[in-house]
Design a protein that fits this description.
By secondary structure, the chain is mainly α. The protein has 5 helices and no strands.
Amino acid sequence: MKKLYNAAHIYMIVGLVSGLYYREITKLNDFTGDSQLGLVHTHLLALGMLFFLIVLALEKMFTLTANRLFNPFFWTYNAGLALTVTVMIIRGTRTVLGHETSEVAAHFAGGGHIILTIGLVLFFIALGKRITETTPPVPAAAAVVRNQGIPATPGS
C-alpha cells in the first residue's frame, strides 16, 4: 500500500511542478500558441496521482498486491506513463522554443501509450481475479449479530 501512496504522491508533485514549468517557460518565451506542455500537467495528475489513489482504495478492498500480476502492472504502467510524459515534455519544450521535433518522437510517444495500455490490461486482469477470489468483508457489527443468532436488521 505504501508503494501506491508513494506513486500517487510523486505524481502529484511532478504534476504540479510540470504546471509551473509550462507557465514559466511559455511566459519567458512570450509563447501563446499550443504545445504539448499544456497537457503534461493534467496527464500526470489524472493518469498518475488520481489513478494511483483509486488503485490504493481498490487495494484496501481487494488486496490487489496479492495477485502475481500486480508488480508487472505497477512497473509497466509507470514505465509507459513516464515515457509518454517525457516525450510530451520534450516535444512541448521544443515547440515553445521554436524548434521542430523529429518524427521519431511520435514513435516513442506511441510506444509509451502501448506500454500504458499493457499496464492497464494487467491491472484489469489482476483486479478481476482478486474480485472473484475475495468475498466482501462483513461489517463487524453484522458479524457479531449474526453469530449470536439475532437478526441484523429489524424484521429479518
